[in-house]
Each structure stands twice: as C-alpha cells, then as structure tokens.
Prior knowledge:
alpha/beta, TIM Barrel, 8 strands, globular
Amino acid sequence: xxxxxxxxxxxxTTPFFENEExxxxxxxxxxxxxINAGVDGIIIGGSxxxxxxxxxxERIELLKASIEQSKGRVPTLVNIAEGSTRTAxxxxxxxxxxxxxxxxxxxxxxxxxxxxxTVAHFVAVAESTSLPILLYNNxxxxxxxxxxxxxxxxxxxxxxQAVKESTRDISNVTRLKNRFGDRFKILCGVDTLAMExxxxxxxxxxxxLVDAFPAETVAIYRLVKAGRIDEALDIYRWFxxxxxxxxxxxxxxxxxxxQVYTELGTExxxxxxxxxxxxxxxxxxxxxxxxxxxRPDLPDYLSIEV
Length: 306
C-alpha cells in the first residue's frame, strides 16, 4: 500500500495483559478507533509502543494484527530500533515479507555512533529493502542528530522518503525545505510542537496522544491544512496540557492512563516500567479528567479535503 506521508500517523501503544503478554484484542480495538477517526497510517513498535521490551516475533504479531484490522484502509509501518545494523536488516526483511507497508528507522541504539556510522546504518537498511523509510531524528532523547549534511548523503536512496522531525527546533522544518524542497517529507514527532510545525510546512504528524484522543488530533491536522487556523487553534489550546504528557520520561504510562479514560487501551506496561503511583499519578489523572470535562465539540473535520 502506498504511503504519501501526509496526515496523522499514530505511534500506537502496545497493550499488555497484567502478566505482560500481548493483548491483541485491545490493540485492534485501538487500531479501529484510529482508522475511524481518520488517521493516515499506523506505526507499531515505536518508543511509545515499548519497542525496547518487544521481541522481533512480537513486532511481527503486532504487524499481522494491524494488517488484519486495517484491511487495506491505511498502511502499517514497523519501527526499527536495533543495536546492530545486522539485526535492523533482519527485522526490515522480515517486516517486508510479512506485509509491512513501510519502516520507521532509528539510528543504532545503545551506542553513540559517528555521523559516518549513522549514515552507513541507514543506508544499509535502505539497500536491504524496497519498503519506503521514515527516518527518526530525535537528538534530544537518543543523542544522535541527523544533520543537513547527513540528509544530503541520503538523496540517492529513493526509498528514504521522510523524516520524523523531533529535534524540538521548529526552524528545522524550514532548513529542510530550504535545502531539499519536497525531497524529504517532514512529519512532526513532538506533540507539543505539532501545530507550529504544520504551519511551517510539515507534511504530517507522528502523534502520541492520538492514542487516547484520535478525533481531536486528526481535526487539528485537517483544519490547519485547510487554512482554518482559528478553529484548529481553539482545539490545540485545549489539547496542550494533555499533549505535554508526551514530553515526559513516563510518556508511555501517561498515555496508556489516558487511554483507559477514553476506553481505548489498558494501563498495563512491561517491566522495567511500572504504573504511575502517588502524587504523580494524581497529577496526570487531574490533567486527563480536566481535559475530558472540557472536551471541545469538533467540526465535521472528516469532510475537509486536504
């Protein structure tokens, strides 16, 4: 299935039972809610999907469950976050064989590579597969930045098509556009900067709180792209205190707790993560409850052509 890299792409959570086994029924329930809300693709096994705790077999299970549920309505991408290039290639090949529509690829994990090593890692994965690739640029969390000069080296590789822009520097959207035009599609990867980056020309949004609030997320995207800025801004200002739950070391626990309140997931996480407790739990619940109480009425955003 073709990926056009426009729109909202949820980085979906991975639901578990209390014993930490995959809860595929809840997973598919969330996938259906995302599709019904109008998202443009699904990304499985990302950081929010507790990638570091998932085996390759489990990612393939999630891939198959997503494909089964989506029934060709939206593409499914598999996240590749590996410590070695060899295992990254293995997962890329296996994902392609099992029907993935694309890949989101991170730099090598657990080791801070040089720029040359990072480029070589991405190129090796790209050369191993025909699947379209979304690079993940997040120097804040992973301490590795994909610089403009590094992007230059990816120009010959036609399946390196897009970047999840998570530098926290809104002007990076303009830098990419100025230097490369539309060669690389840009998807905002930070919930609290999404509207700002969309206004600066970002093509899409890899979202987190979409897992709990899919309609509001898609509405903001479509309203911005239709030029209905005031309407989008009203929703975004309501949403911001909730979106800030995404820029937190406990983002997985925060978002899963929000999903409980919107009936789109469970709170179970896989160790070493633990559920929120004490004052922090009360704080997060307060934000979620306040947001749900004041949840805005949405326009007929699904009818907007973008």
